[in-house]
Amino acid sequence: xxxxxxxxxxxxxxxxxxxxxxxxxxxxxxxxxxxxxxxxxxxxxxxxxxxxxxxxxxxxxxxxxxxxxxxxxxxxxxxxxxxxxxxxxxxxxxxxxxxxxxxxxxxxxxxxxxxxxxxxxxxxxxxxxxxxxxxxxxxxxxxxxxxxxxxxxxxxxxxxxxxxxxxxxxxxxxxxxxxxxxxxxxxxxxxxxxxxxxxxxxxxxxxxxxxxxxxxxxxxxxxxxxxxxxxxxxxxxxxxxxxxxxxxxxxxxxxxxxxxxxxxxxxxxxxxxxxxxxxxxxxxxxxxxxxxxxxxxxxxxxxxxxxxxxxxxxxxxxxxxxxxxxxxxxxxxxxxxxx
Length: 339
Known about the structure:
By secondary structure, this protein is mostly beta strands. It has two helices and 17 strands.
């Protein structure tokens, strides 16, 4: 049942959009039938979102904003970590100020820039990792959304060898953690006609690990993609040092552990068909984890710009007993409707 306290948020979006006639409304609904190892067939609207966005120009300053709400099914369907309520929440509430000469400043909450620039290139499938309550997730530590973000993006610097841009960010999801810089990030982006590459560094404060005595968690990520004709090849690598243990019973839990995850993907688009194949592999020094892989294949048919039909198969390889969301075999058929 939807919680009553979520209703003011929905009413606010509707009221705001009704008075701002220039705002653009949008939304999406994901309907799935899913078969997983050890579970009965699951049916229903797994996720859906709706929002408004607009761009304004005030002299030399560009102003854009976005508000977006999400519905994510849980309960016995698409359950994650024992959460038993369907949820409606504010997923994006952000403002961006842009100048041609000095770049842009982003404030609020929304999709992580690190995920958007690096990780999304190999997270190419329609159902795995679809929002908050999907049981089958990608293996990276990086999250998909961030809260309490202040970020800067430079203008793009064009050269004879390609375009360069850098971005800086401070993410502070904890309001009482004792640090104003829970996660600091720096990212360098490079692009040409058919090739894109990024490198990202994130430093996480010990307070995010639940104990100020812990070391900083340092996380590097690199990503690249190359398009030739109808085919796009992608790679994402994540290298984490001193990742946080949250179980205090583990010996030397304050020291953390190292972990690296690699993902490769191939995406082919021919007419109205899209074929995706990817493989992820995580190697971890975490004493409670074994190495694990994730193989995913999907086919998407675009019936129209508003409607897609899709099927997807996902299989975790190796030992996954410690993952409460990982099922050895998962087959999903469904559709995505956009409005």
